[in-house]
Amino acid sequence: MRITLALKLPKRVKMTTEEKILCAAESEMLERGYEGARMRGIAEKAEINKGLLHYYFKSKEALLSQVFERTFKDIFQTLNDVFESNRPLYEKIELAVFAYSDFICKRPKLPFFIISEMNRNAKKHLQRMHKANAKPPFGRLVQEIEAGKISGLVRQDYNSKHFVLNMMSLVLFPLIAKPMVMFMNDLNETQFKELLQNRKQEIARALITQIKPIN
C-alpha cells in the first residue's frame, strides 16, 4: 500500500516582523544551541536591528518559549489531523509516518536541540510544552490500536505503548546517527537524502506488519 499526499500549497504572504524573528531564532538556536545562540545573531538573520528585536522579545528565553510553542504545535496539529480523520487505521499509520518524517527531515538539527534542552533543564522544557498547550497527538491512535484488537486488525498481545516509541526511534535514529549511517553504508549526502525518502515507506510497512495479527 502506497499513499500519495496531495498538498495544496498556500499563497505566499509577506512575513510579519515577528514571524521573521521566530524563523531567525529557530535557525540560530538549532545551529548553535540555546547557550550558543546570540540575540545579535538572531537580529542579523531576521535583518532587523537589535533594538527592534528586544521590542518584540525581551529575552532569549522568551524567544525559546515561542520557538518551542510554534514547533510543537505545528507537528502535533499535523499528526492530530491524521489521527482524528476517518481514514482506516493502517492508512493513518502510513500518513503519520510520512508527515513526521517530512517534518523532521526539514529540521534535521531539531532532535539534537530537544535532547540538549531536555538534558539542560527537563522540567523547564516540559513546562514550555504545557504552557503552549502542546498536547501529544498519539492518544487517539493508541485508542484505535487497542480497538483494533477487538476488530481483528491488531494482534492481541501487542502493547500499544511500543508503537509511539518505535515510530519515533525509526524516524529519528538515522538523523541522530547520520555520520555513522553514512559511513557504514558508504553514502554521500545525496544518497543519504534518498535513503531517508525511501525509508518512509519501509518504516510504515514495518509498523503495520508489527501490529498485524499473526496468521
How would you describe the overall organization of this protein?
- The chain has 215 residues and is an all-alpha fold.
- The chain has two domains: 16-58, Orthogonal Bundle (Arc Repressor Mutant, subunit A), CATH 1.10.10; 61-211, Tetracycline Repressor, domain 2.
- The chain has helices at residues 17-36, 39-46, 50-56, 60-83, 89-106, 110-131, 139-151, 161-176, 178-184, 189-211.
- Helix 5 (89-106) runs parallel beside helix 8 (161-176) and helix 8 (161-176) packs antiparallel against helix 10 (189-211).
- The radius of gyration is 20 Å and the shape is globular.
- The two termini are 19 Å apart.
- The model is unreliable at 1-12 (pLDDT under 50).
Q: What overall form do the CA principal axes indicate?
A: globular
DSSP summary: helix tally = 10
Span between termini: 19 Å
Query: What Rg is obtained from the alpha carbons, in whole angstroms?
Result: 20 Å
Produce the secondary structure layout.
Elements: H1 17-36, H2 39-46, H3 50-56, H4 60-83, H5 89-106, H6 110-131, H7 139-151, H8 161-176, H9 178-184, H10 189-211
Observed structural traits:
Arc Repressor Mutant, subunit A; 215 residues; mainly alpha; Tetracycline Repressor, domain 2
Kindly summarize this structure in a few lines.
By secondary structure, the protein is mostly helical. The chain has helices at 17-36, 39-46, 50-56, 60-83, 89-106, 110-131, 139-151, 161-176, 178-184, 189-211. It is 73% helix and 0% strand.
